[in-house]
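Subject: for your reference before the review

Hello V.,

The reviewers asked for a structural picture of the protein, and I figured it would be easier to keep everything in one thread rather than splitting it across files. Below is the amino acid sequence we used in the manuscript, unchanged from the supplementary table.
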Amino acid sequence: MAPVTHIRVPATAAQPLRRATVAFGVGLGALLVVAAISAGEWYSILLWLPVGLVVGSIARGVRLVWIAWLAVAAYYPIAAALGVQDDTGPFWYLGAILGGAILSAGFAAGTAIGWRTDPWTRSRDGCGDSGDRPGARSSVPSPSASSRLADTWRTPAASGRR
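And here is what came back from the structure prediction:
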């Protein structure tokens, strides 16, 4: 029998696609929930700004702002099919442009509020041995620093001897 070969795909290559997919799903779902809760009220488009904040914090990159526009483009036919969005007639694209702009503004602001690293990684790095990271300070002096300190106490000028 031939040995089984394993092909490993780097996790970093899959991360942007996964974040983009999750951000799109959360954005579309949140827009549908806002439409269902507000029932076509005028203020419902203003609730798209917090949705953009959440979607932007998930996506973590301003260059992925196209996700907001894609979510708006998918929102209108799905919302009309589900009956949560009133038919706006031939001018639905004006609402889509306004909604896309509001969602994009929230998205851009939301990219600044997301986690930059995993909280567990951040806590592990903060509590770990600081000698592993270059330039990190340690609360325990190095042997060379303590020997230099001991040498300064033993100098003739410091002890009063000549």
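For the response letter, the relevant points are probably these. The longest helix spans residues 11-38. The two ends are 84 Å apart (CA to CA).

Happy to draft the paragraph if you're swamped.

O.
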